[in-house]
Predict the 3D structure of the following.
Amino acid sequence: MKTKAAVVYETGKPIEIEELELDGPKDGEVLIRYTHAGLCHSDVHISHGDLEARLPMVLGHEGAGIIEEVGPGVTRVKPGDHVVCSFIPNCGTCRWCATGQQAICDMGATILEGYLPGERFPFTGPKGNYGAMCMLGTFSQYSTIHQNSVVKVDDDLPLDKAVLVGCGVPTGWGSAVNAADVKPGETVIVSGVGGIGINAVQGARYAGAKNLIAVDPLQNKREKAMELGATHAVGSIEEAADLARQMTNGNGADKAVVTAGIVTEEIVTGAFDAIGKGGTVVLTGLNKLSAQNVNLPGSIFTLFKKTVKGSLFGDCNPTTDIPKILGLYQSGDLKLDELITRTYTLEQVNEGYDDLLNGKNVRGVLVHEH
């Protein structure tokens, strides 16, 4: 079949809308009709070359839709099921899945190559084989993906909101709840309030942070953080560190979650300096894979017993955490509607990313027209 998709051919160039050929599902694969896709910063990292991916690539790794067809051996879903996609697949049997660490499933090794198991490329077009971002390619009307990338959700959940729980929401939420392990009464800093950071704010609030300081240079982001649970919102990490020390008898924050769009050495050092004894910094945002952006004084690490750790997908297990987080949305404990600043059509994808990079959006959502 044919499908319209947003493709990156060359880094630094605008995303192009292209009609591609799509092969149907084979063993273990499903055909999905995407209804919505989230505009997440990681797709910009591909188009800007911060993350080196195999090109051409159909962008989009935050998606929700309806299963149209299933290939042989598919057991997780059936045609007609409403699903949210998981940007890291989960095989269920590798060492990591088997120990409850689906976020680092071995099947995620090829998410920047964009092919399905067996080096299979369902998308083809004028430039040959096209990869799919995170093996999903949610900026296409249809895609053939692996069953390990989908999680069935309740039919009555609005997919335009549930789409966010494929990447941004669990990544931010889990960075605070799982990776930082925020406890009731703690003082927590969230550095960078975009689509990830706003959910780290929601997670830290739900986990019981007493003082929750959001850091962002943009006033609209600070206001959104206050609306969704922050107790304070400031423009710099230095202000946040001073506040944290005032609140903790001079110690500093217990936890700092770094969710900036591009994580620089200055941002990491600022977070490290802002936590006190026994404190933890969680690094969730990205930079170029080769960037040496962590340069910290080892003796302070030791003498103050500080921890700096990386977190992927908020240390979540998508098969259980995606339904759990959606349950919190249904009960009113987690906000999704309020995260969405604007919706876009597929043709407006470049405009959507300009808005993201200019700081206008907490989260933009692409609505597919079929």
The longest strand covers residues 29-39. The radius of gyration is 20 Å.
